[in-house]
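Section 5.1 Outputs to date
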Amino acid sequence: MTRKTIIWKGTRQSLKPTRRNRPKRGILSAPSLLAGEGRGEGYGSPARKSARLKKSKAQSKAAAKAAHGELPQWTNAEVEEAFRRFAAAAPAPRTELQHINPFTLLIAVVLSAQATDAGVNKATPALFKLADTPAKMAKLGEVRVRDLIKTIGLYRTKAKNVVALSHMLVENHGGQVPHDRDALEALPGVGRKTANVVLNVAFGEPTIAVDTHIFRVGNRTGLAVGKTPLDVEIKLMDVVPKKYLLHAHHWLILHGRYTCIARRPLCEKCIIADLCKWPGKTVSSAPAKAREGDRA
């Protein structure tokens, strides 16, 4: 039996193909669908146009234009179409951070600052097995927490914040994660982005947490140009149709993480390439060539 290498969420594993780890035929993940693979590409509309990257020099010029906010504006119809495609590809996207309840979600997001979700997900199962409530985390103590999360960047500061915010939740909020932005941002290690994630995922608020991926997608595509994450957040909250706001945060993160990546965006697989205003690519007049999954 041959081995194959599977790459998923930034990790690489060598696995023997067995019934347990073999992907089900015809089933694709949300990131795969958002990259235009398989049947998620059609959306019940005419085939989209194909795209390819221009040469490096042209890409650099395009990046400079995007950085200076010199890209054409999206029309309301284009924004609507982009999110219609995202919704058709992944109707119910979810955070990739593993969590059990609002408290463990909060901790996972705090730990994810300047770290990957995959890296956080490797450390948190053991942590959450011992402490899945503020009281348990406070009792666990900074030294023990630090030991459990030492594979994550900035683990010393994060361990201190995790224990401190756990004490605050017990003392000030009855051991519950508050459904309030100001209260969340008053916790150690919690800023606007973290508060937005918790409000969105734990409480169903239509917030947009602008991380490095969303900041890049907003500026590169011209969808939401801004010099700061807050600028991009405000613009997105203004332009994204209300019916798509709840999941917009997840669609844009997945798009930036798996398709509109930093060094070499996968324009040839992008499901909104014909709408995107980034001049570092060329969109052909012919529809994208059907892949094997589309012909099945």
